[in-house]
Amino acid sequence: MVSLEAWLALRSVKGLSDATLFRLIQRFGSPEAIQRTSIRDLVQNGLSSSVAEAIHRGPEREPLGRIRQELRLVEKGKLSIVSVLDQGYPRRLAMIPDPPPLLYLTGGWTQADDHALAIVGTRNATPGGSAFTEALSQNLASLGFTIVSGLARGIDAAAHRGALKGAGRTVAVLGCGIDRTYPPEHRALRKEIESNGAVLSELPLGSPPRPYHFPRRNRVISGLCFGVVVTEATSRSGALITARFAVEQNREVFAVPGAVKEKRHQGPHGLIKQGAKLVEDFRDILEELLPQLDPPFRDRLRTVEPVQPPSRQDLVGPEREIYEVLSHEPSLVDEILAQARFSPAEVMSILLTLELKGHIRKLPGSHYIRI
């Protein structure tokens, strides 16, 4: 049985990167075997003499204290740590060229999460982009796909919320230690995710959300999934790094188009030019992925109906008129009043009725948007 303590001891060695550790695991088979290997053989396998000696010497007092703290948290059930050699390690992630040797988890990863799709995008999402992302995620989750994202503000949060709304599973991959939540205002959302999926990190406990952690985090997001969907993203968005990793990992890339002159849509438009599948709704994703899905999951898709939007057939008279004034871009209430032939009190009453029926959503700043 592979010892978690041996893994953590190797992770504590200064100068031993995760990529080198994974290469050594491939060569020697286990962390214990690496520790038993002579300094000479370790050096012959590309390590410096100082790193090889540190492996043989074992953890010093301070890192040993951290290792024991992590082991206590695992024993108490506060978190889980799985290695790339464990059965519980995500199957698809293990296939990428540089999988994390260790994953820290809260919540629970299950076999069902092998059918995962990532949805990512800008932190500065428009209300329309967030609404579309949430609806897309809700539909995919209701069909049985696990939705993976990065817990960030904007599109990531909308993707997680949509999956939860669809009574599905969702997974958040952090760019900090598993004992931290970033951004901090997503603590409540994180708890919901842990109850309906998992939160993952490859970083040791206590790791802060450094900028250079997030590009590495993005390869884990794509590595867990069949493919990556980019909804809103500028041409310099980190979401495009996730899409690039997806290509390198032989995953599918999907992109949601938008207004041609809008900067937040430049990223998806660039991906479409490079061959990404254009997505108008969840059916475009299913069409592309269907040949890759295993037969039991395909059979399940035939029996499960996606979430259906509220029917417009129940909208008559004033309700339909006000609904037609709105669009998928936010409309200020003053703009709606200017176009309506009803009194302000009547318009506000109709807007409330449409919101209760699930046809529209009220946004901050007295804006309304179609769902």
Walkthrough of the structure:
There is one protein chain. The chain has 371 residues and is an alpha/beta fold. It has 3 domains: 4-73, DNA polymerase, domain 1 (Orthogonal Bundle), CATH 1.10.150; 111-303, Rossmann fold (3-Layer(aba) Sandwich); 312-370, Winged helix-like DNA-binding domain superfamily/Winged helix DNA-binding domain (Arc Repressor Mutant, subunit A, Orthogonal Bundle), CATH 1.10.10. The chain has helices at 4-11, 18-28, 31-36, 39-44, 49-57, 61-75, 127-142, 155-165, 187-195, 213-223, 239-248, 266-273, 282-289, 295-303, 318-325, 333-339, 344-356, and strands at residues 80-83, 102-107, 116-120, 146-149, 170-173, 197-201, 227-230, 252-255, 277-278, 331-332, 360-363, 367-370. A 9-stranded mixed beta sheet has the order 1-2-6-5-4-3-7-8-9, with helices on both faces. A 3-stranded antiparallel beta sheet has the order 10-12-11. Helix 11 links the parallel strand 7 and strand 8. Helix 10 packs across helix 11 (239-248).
Shape: elongated
CATH class category of the largest domain: Alpha Beta
Question: Helices and strands: which structural class?
Answer: alpha/beta
Biggest beta sheet attributes:
9 strands, mixed
| Order of secondary-structure elements | HHHHHHEEEHEHEHEHEHEHEHHHEHHEE
- From the N-terminal CA to the C-terminal CA, the straight-line distance is 52 Å
Proportion of residues in helical segments? 40-55%
Our count of helices gives: 17
DSSP strand content: 5-15%
Annotation, overall tally of beta strands: 12
